[in-house]
Amino acid sequence: MGEVMKVRYDAEADILYISIKDDDIEDMDELGEDIFVEYNRNGENCWHRNLAGSQVPDSGNSEIY
User: What Rg do the C-alpha atoms of the chain give, in angstroms?
Assistant: First the structure.
């Protein structure tokens, strides 16, 4: 079975977290205002963080697996 993407929204901090791959983070890039991508040691995309998560369309769930 392959990797499972995880999505979590922190309403208090207004941050949307999207886990692409469960691994240790080695580097991070800012793609735009309040949007970050984190990479593992192989340069593979592991996490996205959107610091204005409330601007993302609402799925009605705070945690999806």
Answer: 12
Among 62, 65, 45, smallest CA distance to 8 is for 62
Q: Which residue has the higher pLDDT, 31 or 48?
A: 31
Structural domain boundaries in the chain: 6-55
Q: What is the spatial distance between Cα 52 and Cα 4, in angstroms, rounded to a whole number?
A: 24
How many CB atoms neighbour CB 65 within 10 A? 9
| Letter string b/e over residues 28-52, b meaning 16 or more CB atoms within 10 A of that residue's CB | eeeeeeeeebbbbeeeeebbbbbee
- Give the residue with greater pLDDT, 65 vs 28: 28
